[in-house]
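Retro notes - structure team

What went well: the batch runner handled both jobs without manual restarts.
What didn't: labels got mixed up in the shared folder, which is why I'm recording both outputs here explicitly, each with its sequence directly above its tokens.

Job 1
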Amino acid sequence: MNAQQQRHFDALYQQHLDNLILQGKRPATVDVYSRAVRRVSAFFDCPPDTLTTEQLRAYFRQLIHTHSWSTVKLDRNGLQFFYRYTLNKQWTWLNIVKPPQVRRLPDLLTPHEVGLLITMTRQPRYQVFFFTLYSLGLRLGEGLNLTTTDIDAHTMQVHVREGKGGKDRRVPLPERTLAAMRRHWRSHRHPQWLFPGIGTTEPMDRGGVQKAMKQVCRECGISKRISPHSLRHCYATHLLEAGLDLRSLQVLLGHASLNTTARYTQFTAVKSAAATRAVNALANQLAVIWEVS
């Protein structure tokens, strides 16, 4: 882009960011929707308000070949928002790309494999973090953003703040998890974060956690497609196997709809039991050898 085009793009982009914030979009949504505008502008090296339907077709044809359908969908939604709120244009051209409706079943680990994965994690901060994700059923971002004030040792609960959809929830805190958290906190004594990054004021890096898990899976000989989020799937499935009822699991996971939780019945038969007893039993059954900080 020449200097004039760049100034025009900068003005449009800032307006796009302002609209995202004014519409109450969460930081993660702001990030991906703004990236969509930057990506399509870089692809054509021009401001995005001049693009034709045929150019957008070409862009998405290329994107489908180089990125996942998840990225394609996010770019489509981001550009839809841009056209609607920043350009005040109709976006009938969005019908040119429709990601397929695919519902894949996630790979799961057995309790033995979860224990092996945690045991084989040689860095103490990652070891405790993986145990925490599993025993609390947390999403990756929820675990990374845990603060010391979120842990209530009196009620043995954890306050999960601003989960998916901006919703808070409380989950039972197994005694073994509390002990691991305390041991880990004493190794760094950060005033805010339970899992702080090294040499930074922010929590641990998301990418670093993901890479660490991939490395441990290779060392364990686990060939399944496993990510930190897989531990949440394992938590749900193993609790159902332990006898927890579906409604209690819905509350623990923070799902708005029971239908979302019900997908875990594809993995196991559902029985009934007390949630707190089942969660404590879940944490206590792992054969974990802790690394000393």
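Job 2
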Amino acid sequence: MTAKAEHYDVIRKPIITEKATAASEHGAVVFQVAIDASKPVIKEAVEALFGVKVKAVNTVLTKGKVKKFRGRPGVRNDVKKAYVTLEAGNTIDVSTGL
């Protein structure tokens, strides 16, 4: 497969947190993805961009919080995360760029 521009629209950026690092020890990588992206589309994009075999994709839709910004209330955007579990023997190094 070749990487298309649509794949870069689906996969926004990797998420590097304590929870994502713990998931990577079990062969999973966490990405921020487009809100309207489905699991098969996410799987196809990861396999095309990184050249790995994907075992499963789990998604989480996090609603934006209401936070104070310079004393005024503001709302953060909704975020969709994808926990991508890779087949045995496949790895993605998210610390380097694409």
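One thing worth noting from job 2: The CA atoms of residues 64 and 78 lie 4 Å apart.
We'll revisit the folder naming next retro.
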